Amino acid sequence: MIPTYTNPRQELLELLRVKSVFHGDFVLSSGGRSKYYVDCRLSTLDPKGAWLVGIVMQQLIASEAAKRGLHVDAVGGLTMGADPVSLAISVRSFLENPQQPLNCFVIRKQPKSHGQTKLIEGNFKKGDQVVVIDDVVTKGDSTIAAINAIEAEGGKVLFAACLVDRQEGGRAKIEARGIPTVAAFTKDDLLGSPQ
Predict the structure, then answer these.
(1) Neighbour count for residue 131 (Cβ, 10 Å)
(2) Domain-wise residue ranges, the chain
(3) Does the domain spanning 8-191 belong to CATH 3.10.180.10?
(4) Which of 63, 157, 177, 182 falls between 20 and 30 A from 170, CA-CA?
């Protein structure tokens, strides 16, 4: 039986708060320090979490695409934070529309050194109109690296979508690059109040 939720966004928010938010003294991948850390993988790689992520993020992308009058071919981002989010969105889109689901792809940090030596793996091809996915946006560098890789391979980035915006300038940096950005949740949503 496929589970249904009356408020999947609230369910996902509660799961993120319980499983993915840690308080202490942390060094972030951006090099900055923080009194809290968001490890979305503990939620995105959880069965219930993946299901909820698929629902919430697919709805966010569908809403943004409709608002902008855009057709999205695929979703993906820089490995590995984006990987489970992108796949959850793709699977959910298949359940919503089996005839036109969103394809899913993964961007390596370095091209593979053997085989087809690809930087982008999965269901991506030149000319695809895509949404760049990230689990957490802090300074925006991972999302911008993904945007650059997609454009270098001939894809068109329509917008970026992240699960959590830490509200530390990353969204503005991505948008300054010319890519609109939407987030399912912000730091304030997760922490309950400005910190």
Answers:
(1) 26
(2) 8-191
(3) no
(4) 63
